[in-house]
Amino acid sequence: MEPMLSIKNMVKRFGGLVAVNDVSLDVYPGEVVALLGDNGAGKSTLIKCVSGVYHADEGEVYFEGQLVRFSRPIEARRHGIETIYQDLALANNLDVGSNIFLGREVKKRYLGGLIRTLDNDFMLQQSQMALDSLGIHFPDLTQPIESLSGGQRQAVAIARAVYWDAKLMIMDEPTNNLGVPEQRKVLDTIRTLRERGVPIILISHTLPDIFAVSDRLIVMHRGRKVTEKKISETNTQEIVQYMVGALDDTREQ
Ligand SMILES: Nc1ncnc2c1ncn2[C@@H]1O[C@H](COP(=O)(O)OP(=O)(O)O)[C@@H](O)[C@H]1O
Ligand SMILES: [Mg+2]
User: Is the pTM of this model over 0.90?
Assistant: First the structure.
């Protein structure tokens, strides 16, 4: 089977700091790959180099077998890579519907296309359907995002990915700052996407969640990939050893 996503020898520097150091990884259709590591390990930087937020200094990204180089996040989204960022790339002043259609707004045409305005009714109706299909209920979709809770914002980001039929979903700490019922909902959504064959890169610190939903684990330490394991081949204690740098498959033992 061909990988859906292939990262080859990626390097990203910030001045003298090597945030991502020669990382390669593959993601296959229908699998959940967990990306783990201590704070500052380079996880967010790595995925931002895939999704077009940052440009890698070295290395290549192949998506569906094609060499890609996204200069902006919207280009990655148009290819089917939906990313839910740790710091949530939602527009705070816009409502739920407008966020789901952000960068892909639907317009109404008048006078044979001479006049075009945003089709807010259509976007709201479609957003309602996307949220309903995930079992998420909002009292009022016209509320601006800034008035929503963390969990509701995550839900909007996830609904956006589902609505646009993501081919690859990247989730950077999606259950952070969420209450327990909302965390469950996110985990259920991960399982639903996986059943639909959508591969997911999941960044999380919550090891029980990782072990509950992932197929494979990749651990980063100080910018480098230090191990890659199937869930069935490892356990929490061993993964923690890799996360703190006590174990490292790339080092001479
Ligand atoms: N925009 C930036 N400018 C400078 N340094 C950065 C920037 N983003 C991240 N870093 C640094 O890169 C390293 C990796 O950060 P990050 O990818 O956010 O780690 P993680 O997501 O694993 O916690 C850290 O040392 C962090 O301080
Ligand atoms: Mg991070």
Answer: no
